[in-house]
Design a protein that fits this description.
The protein is of the alpha/beta class. It has helices spanning 87-100, 113-124, 142-149, 158-165, 176-184, 189-205, 213-220, 222-237, 247-250, 273-282, 301-314, and strands at residues 14-21, 24-32, 37-42, 63-68, 106-111, 129-135, 260-265, 287-291. It binds ligand STX. The site of ligand STX has 12 residues, from loops.
Length: 315
């Protein structure tokens, strides 16, 4: 069978800014066909921002694709702000944006943190979701956060882990997320910068099956790391702002009727396959694709093949 690749690079036919309340303003863009079927792309992190290749998972003749930088990151302002920045603010922002664009329902596409936000949105506003395409499944359960930032991924990447530990004094290492939150909001610019870089590079180090030195450089830059580290850490010390551990999988019945594809890399060290498996067990109707030879990112060939296949199937 033919291996599917990304659609060619495309420029937005329109971009804009939208005030969403609490002093936050979002950058958004639309690409593809203005008369096409609507879709929205939810980026990861939280705090990761939109990248140009995210436009390329959709046939530009068929889809009207909306992309936006979530509160506090990318080109949205105030940059790196944690004020009025929670999962439920982002869910509301999606509604504000959807109404602004006069879209009645859209396909929701999201990976990693984007998969969590997609599930939170679909469980709150199922009537506005036509389909779901999810990959690198992340639901922010305590066990998932512990794996990433306390004891788990550290066993696979002990070398990168040493650099993650370095900014935290010994006494703070029993609670690394809490200690990082204090460093990232300490008010000392040098401490904040070093902590943001170490947090961001740790995550950048574990994302793909094959190492990517260019990604590590990008993750180390202040212009990316500060928003990414602060916003992620803020969401994670707050358990994603869910009312209970496991909420997104427990509440699957609210969105279970929506046609969905779930794509998960077997060797995803960032969000291990256990979570996607638990979601698959709770939601057997969704088309589950466990890719045998990929890690976390949407740029790995096997993940691209399944993700483009998913949107092609729904066009
Ligand atoms: N964060 C998982 C996540 O959503 C724990 C994520 N990790 N890296 C990314 O997203 C980007 C590559 C999109 C920045």
């Amino acid at each position: 069978m033919e291996t599917r690749s990304l659609y060619p690079p495309v420029d937005p036919y329109r971009s804009g800014r939208l005030a969403v309340g609490d002093g936050h303003e979002l950058y958004f863009e639309e690409c593809g066909n203005p008369e096409g079927k609507p879709a929205v792309f939810l980026h990861g992190g939280p705090g990761g921002g939109v990248r140009p290749h995210y436009r390329q998972y959709f046939d530009p003749e068929a889809w009207r694709v909306v992309l936006f930088d979530q509160r506090g990151c990318g080109r949205s302002t105030p940059w790196a702000s944690l004020e009025a920045n929670t999962t439920w603010h982002l869910v509301r922002d999606m509604e504000t944006l959807r109404e602004h664009l006069a879209i009645s329902s859209w396909l929701v596409f999201g990976g990693s943190w984007g998969s969590a936000l997609a599930l939170a949105y679909a469980q709150t506003h199922p009537e506005h979701v036509s389909e779901l395409v999810l990959y690198g499944i992340f639901t922010l359960r305590r066990s998932e956060l512990r794996w990433l930032y306390q004891d788990g991924a550290s066993h696979v990447f002990p070398d990168a882990w040493e650099d993650f530990l370095a900014p935290v004094p010994e006494a703070g290492r029993d609670d690394l997320m809490g200690s990082y939150m204090r460093l990232l909001t300490s008010g000392d610019p040098d401490l904040e910068r070093e902590a943001a870089r170490a947090w961001s590079v740790w995550e950048g180090s574990i994302l793909s099956l094959i190492p990517d030195p260019l990604r590590l450089k990008r993750f180390a830059r202040d212009a990316f790391a500060r928003a990414f580290a602060r916003i992620e850490c803020h969401y994670f010390v707050n358990g994603g702002f869910f009312s209970r551990d496991g909420q997104l999988i427990d509440d699957i019945d609210r969105c279970r009727h929506i046609p969905a594809v779930i794509v998960q890399g077997r060797y995803d060290v960032c969000t291990p396959a256990r979570t996607a498996w638990d979601l698959h067990r709770a939601w057997p109707e969704a088309d589950f694709r466990l890719v045998p030879d990929t890690g976390h990112t949407a740029l790995e060939p096997g993940n691209i093949h399944e993700l483009v296949g998913a949107t092609d199937g729904f066009r």
